[in-house]
Amino acid sequence: MGNVRFGGGFPSVPPVIKNLIIINALMWLAELTFKDVLVTPLALHYQGSPEFGIWQLISYMFLHDTRNIFHLLFNMLMLWMFGAQLEQRWGAKRFLLFYIVCGIGAGLIQLLANQVELNIVLSKFNSGAMEFNEFRYRAAMIQLIQVLGASGAIMGVMAGFTYLNPNQELFLFLIPFPIKMKYAMVGYVLIDLFGGINPGYGGGVAHFAHLGGALFGFILVIIMNRNNRRTFY
Asked: Phi and psi for 50 in degrees, rounded to 5?
């Protein structure tokens, strides 16, 4: 997503975000210790896998890749930078619910995308456009997918921030001029859309989870803003 700097200084760390950062850090340390014993039951699996459990739609967002600490650090930085204002504006309970629902929505969209991809592979095989060995390999790869990380939920947070602050300027790494949040968000969405529909480009990133989180974030914040309510539950 890129490094972000706001002109108005750094936000404080409100309690829900602070606790989310602590939980994610502790879970990362636990993953280092217990490895697959922890990751296998908590990461989000393909819905047809015997490893799938409904709780994974929540638990997966508290896991991160232990091979790359920047996966965790960058997600937590984005959570703080974009989420602090939302928690201060909405309150702790509403922000936490927003975050969790965005994460669940991200997981659901990723599961749907996995199923659509598997259906496409099956259709190509049935029509004779794909050899059996390739079909078997690609179908197995789809069914063995494990999704983990807070990126989908954080894309929802970024979507909420963008809706409420479309003209907020930010600085992105390697771009020498400020960009309005609404344009940056469109750029992030287009990158994920391109990566999602071009699997060779994806690089192991759950692009449709990002898109799902952004979608749910926009929908939720529009509902809240339209109803002008303190809560949406």
From this structure: -65, -15
Residue 232, pLDDT > 50, answer no
In tens, the pLDDT along 156-211 reads 999 999 999 999 988 776 667 788 999 999 999 999 999 988 876 666 789 999 99
Whole-structure pTM value: 0.89
Give dist(CA 121, CA 135) in Å, integer.
7
- The structure tokens 């309005």 sit at 180
Amino acid at 47: Q
The residue behind tokens 């179908």 is: 139
- Cβ neighbours of residue 73 closer than 8 Å, sequence gap 6 or more: none
In the CATH scheme, what is the homologous superfamily, with its name and number, of domain 4-8+22-227?
Rhomboid-like (1.20.1540.10)
Residue 113 makes CB contacts below 8 A (sequence gap 6+) with 196, 208
The C-alpha angle 12, 160, 193, rounded to 5 degrees, equals: 120
How does DSSP assign 80-141, residue by residue? HHHHHHHHHHH-HHHHHHHHHHHHHHHHHHHHHHHHHHHHHHHHHHHTTSS-HHHHHHHHHH
Q: How far is residue 176 from each of residues 3, 20, 56, 170, measured CA to CA in Å?
A: 12, 32, 40, 11
Contacting residues for 12 by C-beta, under 8 A, at least 6 apart:
84, 88
Give Dmax over CA atoms of the chain in angstroms.
59
Place of tokens 């690609």: 138
